[in-house]
Amino acid sequence: MNYKEACKYILNIPKFGKKSGLENIKILLDLLDNPQKELKFIHVAGTNGKGSVCTMLSYILCEHGYKTGLFTSPHLINMNERIKINNIDIDNEDFINALVQVKNKIEYMVEQGYNHPTFFEVLVAMAFVYYNNNNVEYVILETGLGGRLDSTNIIENPVVSVITSIGYDHIAILGNTIEEIAREKAGIIKHGRPTVLYYDKKEVFNTISIECSNKKSKLYSYNDFNYGILKRTKKNIDFSINNKYYNYNEVYLNTIANYQIINISIALTTVEVLINEGIDLNRKSILQALKKFTWPGRMEYVMDNMLIDGAHNVQGIRMFVKDINNLYKNTELSILYTSLKDKPYKEMISELKKCNNINRMILTQMNSDRATDANLLGEYCKEIGFKDIYTITDIDDAVEYAISLSNEGRMVCCIGSLYLVGYIKSKMKEEAQYD
C-alpha cells in the first residue's frame, strides 16, 4: 500500500462505516492491545476554539521538552495534519504503517460480523498506535463531535478534561438546547479527574458543574478574564491577561484575531491545572511557546489583502465580525462566503450583515453534495439588504475572482467553511509549486 492508496481507503470508509456508540472503537482498540492505555491525555471538547487550545497546549509542552502528540480535526489540505508529534505532521511512511496495523484488525472485525469502523474511528486508532509506537509522553486529544459518544472518549483517565466555548452547532446530533449540547460535551469529564471550563452562558456552567459534582471532578471554571492590548500590528498582538487562576503581564501572539485571546485564557488556565497535577512548567518557557504558536486558517493572511478564517457556525461568525469591525472599520470589504447544508446559513449571513463596511458579497459552493446551493445564499443576501452580490457557483471561478480583487488592492475575507479555507490554501500551495 502506498500513501495515495492509504488515503483512498480512508476516504472510502464513509460508504460502509457505521457508527455504533463507542462499541466499534472499543473492539478495534482491544484487538490492537489498547495502545491508548499506555498514554497520558489532555482531552479537549467544545464548539469553538478547541483546535487552537489543543495546539497552544502542544506548543507549551513541547517547549518544556515533553514529547507531545497532537490529534485534531478536520484537516485543511492533507490527512497527515490530524496526527502530529512535537507539532510535526506524521510522515507518509508512518501514516501507512499505522493504517496497515489498524486495517488488519478491521478485516478481522468484519469477518467476525462486527460493523466496519467509521472514518473518524480509524484515524483515532491510527493516532493511538502511532503515539504508542513512538513513546509519546502526553497526547493533546481533540474530540471530533460532541464528547459523550465521540470516539476519543474511549480514554479512561485524562490528566485533565478541557471544555472550551459552547454554542449551537451540530444540533441535529447534539441537541436543540444549550443544556443538551453542554451535556454531550460534558461526557468527557472523568471520575476524579480535574476539568477546565470557559463559559459565557449560565446554562453551560450549571450543566457542567452538576456533571463534575457527580463525578467528583474538581472544576476550574470562569466566565470572565481581564486583558489589555499593549501593541497590535497587522500580524500580531501583545497583551496582558489574567483571571483568578493566573496573571501574565505580557503575552506575544502571532495572530490578529482577538478571539484567540479567549483561547489563550483557556490554555493558560489548563497550564495551572497541569502544574497542580505535578507537570513541571515554567512561565518563561510558556511565553516562549506562545510566541511560536500558529494555527492555520484562523484570521490568516494568504495574500497582502486576502484573509481566510475558518468560522463555520453562528458563534464563530459573530466573533469574526467583532474582530473585523475593530480592525477594518475604515476599509471596504469583499466577503467570499460558502456554507454546508447542515449549517444555519441564514443566521450566519445575518451575523455577517453586522459588519459595518461590507460592500460586496461573493457566494459560491464547494464541489460536494454537502454544500449549500450558492443561489440560495445569494437570494438570502438580497433578502436581508446586501446590495452588491455576486453568485459564482463554480468554486474555482469564485476564488479566482476573490484573488483578482485582492490583487487590485481590495480587502477580501473568505469565511463560512473550513473546507473553503482548506481549498484556498491548497490552491495557493499548488500555484506556488507551479511558479
UniProtKB/TrEMBL annotation:
What keywords were assigned to this record? ATP-binding, Ligase, Magnesium, Metal-binding, Nucleotide-binding
One cellular component term from this protein's GO annotations in UniProt:
cytoplasm
Q: Where, if anywhere, are coiled coils annotated?
A: none
- An MF annotation (GO) of this entry: metal ion binding
Family of this protein: Belongs to the folylpolyglutamate synthase family.
Mur ligase central domain mapped to chain residues: 44-270
By its UniProt entry, which Pfam families does this protein fall under?
Mur_ligase_C, Mur_ligase_M
What NCBIfam families does the entry give? folC
Q: Which cofactor does it need?
A: Mg(2+)
Q: Where is the Mur ligase C-terminal domain?
A: 297-417
Q: Which Gene3D superfamilies match?
A: Mur ligase, C-terminal domain (3.90.190.20), Mur-like, catalytic domain (3.40.1190.10)
| PROSITE patterns on file | FOLYLPOLYGLU_SYNT_1, FOLYLPOLYGLU_SYNT_2
Q: Which reaction does it catalyse?
A: (6S)-5,6,7,8-tetrahydrofolyl-(gamma-L-Glu)(n) + L-glutamate + ATP = (6S)-5,6,7,8-tetrahydrofolyl-(gamma-L-Glu)(n+1) + ADP + phosphate + H(+)
**What is this protein's record name?**
tetrahydrofolate synthase
Please state the Enzyme Commission number of this protein: 6.3.2.17
Per UniProt, the enzyme's principal EC class comes to ligase
Which InterPro entries does the record associate with it?
Folylpolyglutamate_synth, Folylpolyglutamate_synth_CS, Mur-like_cat_sf, Mur_ligase_C, Mur_ligase_C_dom_sf, Mur_ligase_cen
